[in-house]
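Could you help me review a protein record that somebody else here produced? Do not assume that whoever made the record got everything right. The record follows directly below this note.
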Amino acid sequence: MIECRNLVLGHNGKPISERFNLSLPNNKWFGIIGENGCGKSTFMKTILGNIKPISGNLTVLGNAPGGSNDSIAYIPQEREINASEHTSGLTLIELSYNGWHFGIPFLNSTIKKKALDILKLVGATKYMHQPFNTLSGGQKKRIYLAQALINRPKLLLLDEPLADLDPEAKQHFIEAMGKIHQEHELTLLIISHDMHEIAMNLNGYIHFKQKQVHFCQELPCIREGVYVGL
């Protein structure tokens, strides 16, 4: 899924990591951990091709960054949709089908069924007809998650999806993630300060520490810094 060879991350021409090698297989879920400002979000943006690495080689689904973005879904830490006051969550998801193509998709019965199936999977059917702008933060995030899944991505990137959610909304989101893990073949990279709450769904961690990057599954490593809750 993702191959890093002698990769050095950075932005504005300044390196923020030392060289590292990493190989992530398909259909596994990984947390990205480390202190604030260590390069976690930069790594995601480099995978997307939004930021160029300082040096080294990175391939995503066998292509250079940006070459496979129609197979990648990304939910950034902060996101706002300028929807009209009457646009529902269901409509947003339907209109996201093949969203990289030009024009508005023809909403046939197949697309409508896919949208309903995804909404059921993430637990958002109760409010799918409500205007999106009237939904709570937790409800919006489940709509974002459904929107990210409608095109059956092979790789899903989530940057702090649990941030600003109350405990109940956070638990609902985690339950939705668990169902997705069971029912979809999908590689996931997730950044979260609540990593201890989703650890049971993860297969390993990419640890950023003092400009070094390594793969780990050991609790002493995972407990460091802000992840003392594990």
